[in-house]
Design goal:
This protein is mainly α and 210 residues long. The chain folds into two domains: 3-59, Homeodomain-like (Arc Repressor Mutant, subunit A, Orthogonal Bundle); 67-202, Orthogonal Bundle (Tetracycline Repressor, domain 2), CATH 1.10.357. It has helices at residues 3-33, 40-47, 62-82, 90-107, 133-149, 157-178, 185-190, 193-202.
């Protein structure tokens, strides 16, 4: 490796570290104020830059910063979802994926807004990330397996899409309520989460369309 290549590698590593530091600072601001509640001037000050213009050496603007944040935390959520064993029965995998989301939300309470960057509650300009593709594929395969085996009454891909999204919404709602309560109420809710998810999944074993 030439001296120029080595120097370029060090510069790239420093650039990546600085980007991570900016994202760390942005996480703090999002935790405090929400995705749309902070300015680049505030972020520059929090990250130790003299002015907001310095941030443009690392990101094209706020939209790219929010996109990078969402991608970071969706990947970390993915790590939790990957822990669910693939040899569990299909219905139980769905339940445990929902439980894994709750585990993530409890351990990373400040990043829930970032996990909604694909949802309509966030301004369209900030919808820019998604779960790692292999996890999306896995969840749809679970739906397909449940349909093929007759375990759940799912007629087509639209049914699978609707049921998976409703499960995600249920898990996210539970996470939101979890932060609203203290013990003993919080412990009461947590002790019943898995049973509630099982009841949710069981509701699709027969015709549920009314």
């Amino acid at each position: 490796m030439s001296a120029g290549e080595a120097g370029g590698g060090r510069l790239a590593a420093r650039h990546a570290r600085t980007r991570d530091e900016i994202l760390d600072a942005a996480t703090e601001l999002v935790t405090d104020r929400g995705v749309e509640g902070f300015s680049l001037h505030e972020l520059a000050a929090r990250a130790g830059f003299g002015n907001a213009a310095s941030l443009y050496r690392y990101f094209a603007g706020k939209r790219e910063i929010v996109s990078a944040l969402a991608a970071r935390y969706l990947e970390r959520l993915g790590d939790y979802l990957r822990r669910v064993p693939e040899d569990l029965p299909v219905e139980e995998q769905i339940v445990e994926i929902c439980m894994a989301y709750l585990d993530y939300a409890r351990e990373h309470p400040g990043t829930r807004a970032l996990l909604l960057t694909t949802a309509s509650s966030i301004a369209p300009d900030f919808r820019a990330a998604a779960l790692p593709s292999e996890l999306v594929v896995r969840m749809f395969r679970l739906g397909e397996a449940a349909r093929a085996s007759g375990a759940l009454d799912l007629r087509d891909e639209d049914d699978i899409f609707a049921v998976l999204h409703a499960g995600w919404a249920l898990a996210h709602g539970m996470a939101e309520y979890d932060k609203m309560y203290e013990d003993p109420e919080r412990s009461v809710l947590r002790s019943r989460h898995r049973a509630i998810f099982r009841a949710y999944v069981a509701g699709f074993r027969s015709d549920w369309r009314g």
